[in-house]
Amino acid sequence: MGEGDIIEVHDLEHTFDGVEAVRGISFTVRRGEIFSFLGPNGAGKSTTINILTTLLPLQKGTVRVAGYDVAREAPEVRKAIGIVFQEDVLDRDLTVWETMEFHGRLYAIPREERRRGIEDLLRIVELDAKRDERTKNLSGGMKRRLQIARGLMTRPEVLFLDEPTQGLDPQTRMRIWEYIREVNRAGTTIFLTTHYMEEADMLSDRISIIDYGKIVVSGTPETLKNALGEDVVYLETADDRRARESLRDIREIRSISESPRGLSITISADGSHCLPRIVDKVRGAGVGISSVNLKKPTMDDVFVHYTGRELRDTGA
Ligand SMILES: Nc1ncnc2c1ncn2[C@@H]1O[C@H](COP(=O)(O)OP(=O)(O)OP(=O)(O)O)[C@@H](O)[C@H]1O
């Protein structure tokens, strides 16, 4: 395990009755970072997170979490981590406070420390006013916040979040992102799975894109997007044909095509540096320009580039 690595996965494979859910993945997560697994439904994200959290037995490969081997030291791994599941696993008849209290007792947290911990966490996720409400009466966003608070009861070194904002409305999602960042700033490493491009992009220090049980690419959101080198300039001109001709000797232009937004010019370098020259050339040829747009690659573009298809948003 590297000095700063808190999770280390080597050649992990997992099969369910002949279905290869995870097909040989390796990656590391550094202490203190927010790391995301981005991929469509069925890509193998839940299977991986379940193995890392010892909920599924290890079949093949090696996995170390917080310095412990998941196969041989499962209890130690469990003590070091917190988990927030995808589905609602709250006891419907317990109140918010009881939910926390019960979890704290399960982990044998001393009474006074438990009480203070619950107070603090309910304040962080803004549920202190709901402490006596039964969980069945909470909204979906409140339930998720309670699950996050509960996952943090044990001050885990690593918090695992499986699709933390699945099915939530945009405002609630953004709030949850804030809580996740806050928890991370306080020193907890975060491993999360998501099929939301924006979530992975906004939240992560590093992302691995997973598809059909394999990691297709990993990196920081910035490097992934920049590596595509596919900035596109959209240009609406008075005369597209002459505009195209005037651009012939700009080396960084990879291709030009017509689109509903005008000429679509793909640049093989940083588009913001090419843009002034493009405008100068077209104007220099006496062609009027009515609008200019620069589009940088998004995480969607990265996803399409590496998997060859779009990730349809099946959530909210
Ligand atoms: N208990 C199981 N029994 C049989 N097959 C399973 C089981 N769990 C998962 N699979 C299969 O393994 C593959 C990966 O599933 P997994 O749940 O890990 O994907 P995922 O990326 O987490 O997607 P989702 O977000 O929908 O959970 C899928 O083909 C799925 O049908």
Automatic annotation (TrEMBL):
Any one Gene Ontology molecular-function term assigned to this protein's record: ATP binding
Main subcellular location of this protein, as a coarse class: membrane
Keyword terms of this UniProt record: ATP-binding, Nucleotide-binding, Transport
Matching PROSITE patterns: ABC_TRANSPORTER_1, ABC_TRANSPORTER_2
Domain of life (superkingdom): Archaea
Topology of this chain in the membrane: Peripheral membrane protein
Cellular compartment(s): Cell membrane
Pfam families: ABC_tran, DrrA1-3_C
Gene3D superfamilies on file: P-loop containing nucleotide triphosphate hydrolases (3.40.50.300)
InterPro entries membership: AAA+_ATPase, ABC_transporter-like_ATP-bd, ABC_transporter-like_CS, DrrA, DrrA1/2-like_C, P-loop_NTPase
Domain (ABC transporter) ranges: 7-237
SUPFAM superfamilies associated with the record: P-loop containing nucleoside triphosphate hydrolases
Keyword hit for Transport: yes
NCBIfam families: drrA
Similarity comment: family membership: Belongs to the ABC transporter superfamily. Drug exporter-1 (DrugE1) (TC 3.A.1.105) family.
Protein name: ATP-binding cassette domain-containing protein
